[in-house]
Specification:
alpha/beta; Dihydrodipicolinate Reductase, domain 2; 10 strands; disordered C terminus
């Protein structure tokens, strides 16, 4: 397996987790860039260490700008930052303009991708079960900026497709929780819970590195997601 040169844009907890796991994916970190390292005119290929791919975990207002500079520099980019999805159409336009390859996801954990499919199926089944209310509870660490989380938004949309009605979301920010998402389907005399719990943020780093390797092998410009990486059939709703 050929070694892949990776540039890390954002060197916080996720950046350090990515670097620690990189050797297991035969990836070599060639650049570590925090906000202070990014000039106002953007990133160059040289500043990106002539990387084969960049992985971006920063803040919502910077994600698309950083992705644009990567594409202009000819470096494919994986976006792990959340909280910018109302501008997702801009990413498609940037990819087309700069013939860039970009992959984004609100969550890189493979189990979350399965839970997305389960959420839609559960919604469809509970639609025909009388007396059940649905609620989504998501819990993250206190440093997480967006609420609800990008994963919660994607899960809510999938469940609403099945239920054909809205699903309320409660967001909790406490301690150091990497991420827990729980559907509660409640009826007067019974309750069903569907839960995904991330026990370690390394699951996100592991998935992002797998996505980065996958993206380097794609020749065609375009916008991809974890569903493409895992070979899952596309469905309606928020792509993830």
């Amino acid at each position: 397996m050929t070694s892949v040169r990776v540039a890390l844009i954002g060197y916080g907890r996720m950046g350090r987790a990515l670097e620690a796991l990189a050797p297991a994916h035969d990836c070599h970190v060639v650049a570590r860039l925090d906000a202070a390292d990014i000039p106002s005119h953007g990133l160059t290929r040289e500043q990106l260490g002539h990387a084969d791919v960049a992985i971006e975990f920063t803040v919502p207002h910077a994600a698309l700008v950083n992705a644009m500079h990567c594409m202009k520099a000819g470096v494919p980019v994986v976006i792990g930052t959340t909280g910018w999805y109302e501008r997702a159409h801009e990413l498609v336009e940037l990819s087309a303009t700069h013939h860039g390859r970009v992959l984004w996801s609100p969550n890189f954990a493979p189990g979350v991708q399965i839970m997305l499919a389960l959420a839609e199926t559960a919604g469809r089944l509970f639609r025909h079960a009388p007396g059940f209310d649905a609620h989504l509870l998501e819990t993250h660490h206190t440093a997480k900026l967006d609420a609800p989380s990008g994963t919660a938004i994607a899960l809510r949309e999938r469940a609403e497709l099945g239920l054909e009605r809205s699903v309320p979301v409660t967001s909790v920010r406490v301690g150091s929780v990497p991420g827990t998402h729980e559907f509660i389907f409640d009826a007067p005399f019974e309750q069903v819970r569907l839960t995904h719990e991330a026990r370690d943020r390394r699951v996100f780093a592991d998935g992002a590195l797998a996505a980065a390797r996958w993206l380097t092998a794609k020749a065609e410009p375009g916008v991809y997601t974890m569903r493409d990486v895992l070979g899952l059939a596309s469905t309606t709703g928020t792509v993830s």
